[in-house]
Amino acid sequence: MDSKLVRIGTVYIPVQHLEAATDWYVKHLGAVVSYSDEDKAIINFADASFFLVKARVGERNYFFDVHEKKRFPITFEVDGLDSLTALQQQLKNGGVQVGEVEDRGHAGNNFVFEDLDGNVFDVWSELSPSYVK
Fold first, then answer.
1. Could you tell me if 124 and 97 are in contact, meaning their C-beta atoms sit under 8 angstroms apart?
2. pTM of the model
3. Per-residue pLDDT averaged across 64-91, rounded?
4. What residues contact 75, with CB distance under 8 A and at least 6 apart?
5. How far, in Å, CA of 83 to CA of 79, rounded?
6. pLDDT in tens, 11-62
7. Which of 41, 50, 59, 124 meets the CB 3.0–4.6 Å disulfide criterion with 14?
8. Of 60, 62, 27, whose CA–CA distance to 45 is shortest?
9. What are 114's strand-pairing partners?
10. Burial class of 31 by CB neighbour count within 10 A (0 to 12, 13 to 18, 19+)
11. Which helix (H) or strand (E) holds 133?
12. In whole angstroms, what is the distance from residue 88 CA to residue 45 CA?
């Protein structure tokens, strides 16, 4: 038996107002709701499942590194720079808090965006080789 981790099954995201957060993910990221109750919603997008969980006030998904830079726990991928800039513009047009496209010194470019609750996510212009297969 091969006992290695195969994939990420679910990502949990803290939110304050569950219904508003669910609507935000559907509108801006094309999420599909597969379950919802008074404390959580399961949404699917980017080939993954996400649990939006009603959390205490002030809970967020980010942290600060040793240089006091806000860091994100998740990087989404798109297929190329054109897709990256198109998504960035789409999110901006929708009123989403979006950072500038950055060259971070490795292959591809990135930008950061925030959801309705201030949770931070990254988007990268390169698809992982294992996904392309």
1. no
2. 0.91
3. 96
4. 110, 121, 122, 123, 124
5. 6
6. 999 999 999 999 999 999 999 999 999 999 999 999 999 999 999 999 999 9
7. 59
8. 27
9. 120
10. buried
11. none
12. 17
SS3 78: coil
d(C-alpha 112, C-alpha 118), whole Å: 11
Q: Helix, strand or coil for residue 112?
A: strand
What residue has token string 């599909």? Answer: 32
Q: How many helices (H) and strands (E) does the chain have?
A: 3, 9
The region that residue 66 occupies, defined by phi over 0 for left and psi between -120 and 50 for alpha, beta otherwise, is alpha
3-state secondary structure of 13: strand
**Length of the chain (residues):** 133
